[in-house]
Amino acid sequence: MSKPVLQIEKLSKSYELGKRTVPALSNLDLTVNAGEFVAIMGPSGSGKTTLLNVIGCIDKPTSGRVLLDGIDVATLAENQLYKIRRDKMGFVFQTFNLLPYLNARENVELPMEGRIKSKSDRKKKASDLLAMVGLSGRESHRPQRLSAGEQQRVAIARALANDPAYILADEPTGNLDSENKQGIIKLLANLNLTQGTTIIMVTHDTQAARNTERMLLLKDGKIVKEVQGLHANKKNQKCPYCNNNIQSTDEKCPTCKKSIYATEELF
Q: How do residues 82-130 score in pLDDT, each as one tens digit?
């Protein structure tokens, strides 16, 4: 069994608003193993973004422990947290956050500048990552010349630039139309299958969540429900409906012909 890359123990996080203390997370426990693809869902105000910020070493917990590869990051200084964010994490945002004056390859190269000294090595790796996400031939295009789906693919390539232990994705399909949304979901799922990339995704999108391995429902700062996603069936190579064998690349079961890729939201 894969070892945990993230262990959260009795995590609480609250904010001071004037004279009021507002709880965002309450006594939360969570373990994510290496190579998992996990979706965190919940209504607005449930604590999703706060949880992602704590996992991403942007916010510190009020109490509890956050262990990344066995290290309690709640006890680390900011310069140590910066190195963890740089070396272990890749971030994907709803609004892409690409620099408009850099082309696609240069945006992907940017996180490498502190780690890979050779410009030619950075250029080659960035081009290879863009090819991996389906953007060969688009390296010299600036963001304004790329579609929303292509911009998110650049953002995912950038997130992979330093070979992170995991990707943290905050509403990665939130600004995309249906076609591009499906493309990004499939891209993330394929990265998880073929590269073993651990992905933790916050989303309102039930279609995106259903295509992950594990769905966690957050409510009032606590995980109240966990549901297996269709991606788990692909990894296990078993149809969720008839239990016959499937290939991890199948979108339909060859036996019962039912889809093992969610193409619609639940509601």
A: 989 988 899 998 889 999 999 999 999 999 987 888 999 999 999 999 9
Please tell me the distance from the alpha carbon of residue 117 to that of residue 155, in angstroms, as a whole number. 22
The domain segmentation of the chain, as residue ranges, is 36-60+74-236
Helix (H) or strand (E) holding 23: strand 20-33
143-177 CB burial, b ≥16 within 10 A, e <16:
beebeebbbbbbbbbbbbbbebbbbbbbbbbbbbe
Q: Which CATH superfamily is domain 36-60+74-236 in?
A: P-loop containing nucleotide triphosphate hydrolases (3.40.50.300)
Q: Which of 149, 246, 157, 237 is nearest to 197 (CA)?
A: 157
Helix (H) or strand (E) holding 123: helix 119-132
Contact indicator for 250, 243 with CB cutoff of 8 Å: no
Strand, coil or helix: what is 239? coil
Greatest alpha-carbon span in the chain = 61
**Residue type, position 223, single letter:** I
